[in-house]
Design brief:
heterodimer, A: 246 residues, mainly alpha, 9 helices, elongated, B: 255 residues, alpha/beta, Rossmann fold, six-stranded mixed sheet, four-stranded antiparallel sheet
Chain lengths: 246, 255
């Protein structure tokens, strides 16, 4: 199957996904389960990575700007820009593509190879709508919150790094954070997050739903799903940046 | 009655079913047998609507599969119970949630009533105190019984089973066979079983359809299969010495 066929099949899948749920009470139950599995269970890793990466960005910037002619508040300014514009929305999404994407592909793929999806279809249930729509809604709802948290913790990580290493004064850092703050950047980051969240839910779901074979193929599909999700995120990041900031 | 007429199905230009015609009757346990690759599973999946045949008609009590609207098709599927080879129980749901799932989706009943129905079918398949367990905590035989309970919870008119005995010890396999036969009689439903297990075929196969290379090579009852001279059936069914001797004994007895 060539790439165009995959793209066509992916959009046909979406057509089935975006149908009215057959039973709202069951959909609601699934939605809460997905918010827990895909969102709440990612909190720890998001908090841990964003805090330390924020610290590292601040330290790296501080080490690069040791000239007395460059004001120290630029460390805070640069950290804020890097974290809000790229690190939180894009790189956190790539990390989540690995964690959540592989989970989605393997869980749906396992259901496919163990005939659980056939069991849904035999009952007269639209399996794509039942399995994938709650995942999409869950990530679209929860990921912006995760990314906002990553922004805050990343910037805070830089602050803590400054206070522990004496590479810069925290007052300068805070001044840099406040300097030239543009709320549009948050809007830009959240717009990207929503697009990436959709990609993180749907591409792995596609790879899981159409897997054929046994457990080995499910593993291979998970890897493929993570790679393709990351590639699509990086490509979309380029185009979105051009469109929204260019 | 389920009527199958001249069913053709192919995959990538390779014919798998070549003009199958047969019927499955109410209150009877029908079995589809044949070697691996003979088209048994494809036939079952065509009956279930999981595969769309290229040609032919499948009709459920006069309702032709291919001519049904989406709504009627969905309605028909709610009248079908299916026991998959591996059970196909939802790993993330408890036994109770697994069985209650079709009720939650399609029956507008209060929770208490649904729970009562779950307990009733669990009791019917001789399982107690497993409501809160997950499928992974159950033995193979228990998983099959839960799968049967889920298949009958909606009072289906048609019950399909794909290799219900695979991976089970002979004793548990007999229990499952008897359970399926009892349910078929009790609820007066049409049961179609896809099986490799000759014990089951002899025990509960009221109608047997033998497939060979996608063609119906023989059809009869579990009594007639002892007497048949059909070479392909004899070669397949009596491949083991034990069954050869059973056949000889049966033929000597009936002479």
């Amino acid at each position: 199957m060539n790439y165009f066929e995959h793209v066509g099949k992916y959009f046909l899948m979406l057509k089935q996904v975006f149908k009215k749920p057959q039973k709202w009470s069951v959909f609601r139950e699934m939605l809460f389960r997905e918010i827990e599995d895909l969102g709440l269970k990612s909190l720890g890793i998001v908090m841990f990575i964003s805090f330390f990466v924020g610290g590292v960005v601040a330290i790296q910037t501080a080490l690069s700007v040791d000239s007395p002619f460059i004001p120290k508040y630029l460390i805070g300014f640069a950290t804020k820009r890097s974290v809000i514009l790229e690190f939180a929305p894009t790189f956190m999404s790539v990390i989540l593509a690995g964690k959540v994407g592989s989970y989605i592909t393997s869980s749906i793929g396992t259901m496919r190879v163990t005939e659980q999806i056939d069991a849904l279809e035999v009952m007269g249930i639209n399996s794509l709508n039942y399995l994938v729509l709650p995942k999409i809604i869950a990530v679209l709802f929860f990921y912006p919150l995760l990314i906002l948290l990553a922004m805050v913790l990343g910037i805070y990580g830089g602050y803590i790094a400054g206070s522990l290493t004496d590479l810069f004064f925290t007052e300068d850092y805070v001044y840099g954070i406040r300097l030239d703050f543009n709320p549009y950047y948050i809007k830009y980051a959240l717009t990207k997050t929503l697009v990436f969240a959709f990609v993180i839910a749907t591409i792995p779901a596609y790879h899981g739903y159409y897997v054929k074979g046994g457990s080995l193929e499910v593993g291979r599909s998970s890897t493929k799903a993570v790679v393709w999700t990351s590639v699509v995120i990086i490509l979309l990041n380029y185009f979105l940046t051009q469109m929204l900031l260019g | 009655m389920i009527e199958v007429e001249n069913l053709y199905k192919q995959f990538n230009g390779q014919p798998v079913l070549k003009g199958i015609s047969t019927t499955f009757e109410k209150g009877k346990t029908s079995m589809i047998i044949g070697q691996s690759g003979s088209g048994k599973t494809v036939l079952l999946k065509c009956l279930l609507g999981l595969h769309i045949p290229e040609e032919g008609i499948i009709s459920f009590d006069g309702r032709k599969h291919t001519e049904l609207s989406v709504k009627d098709h969905r309605q028909l599927r709610q009248e079908i119970g299916m026991v998959f080879q591996g059970g196909a129980l939802y790993d993330s749901l408890t036994v109770e949630e697994n069985i209650m799932f079709p009720l939650k989706m399609f029956a507008d009943q209060p929770f208490k009533q649904m729970r009562e129905r779950v307990n009733f079918v669990l009791n019917r398949v001789n399982l107690d105190n497993v409501n809160k367990k997950f499928p992974a905590e159950l033995s193979g035989g228990m998983q099959k019984r839960v799968a049967i309970a889920r298949a009958i919870v909606m009072n289906p008119k048609y019950l399909f089973c794909d290799e219900p005995n695979s991976g089970l010890d002979p004793n548990t396999a007999t229990v499952i066979d008897n359970l399926i036969q009892e349910i078929t009689k009790e609820y007066d439903i049409i049961t179609v079983i896809n099986s490799h297990d000759m014990n089951s075929v002899m025990e509960i196969g009221e109608k047997i359809i033998f497939l060979k290379d996608g063609v119906k090579a023989w059809e009869g009852t579990n009594k007639e299969i002892f007497k048949t001279e059909n070479e392909a059936v004899v070669k397949f069914v009596y491949s083991s010495n034990l069954f050869k001797k059973v056949r000889e004994a049966y033929l000597n007895e009936t002479k």
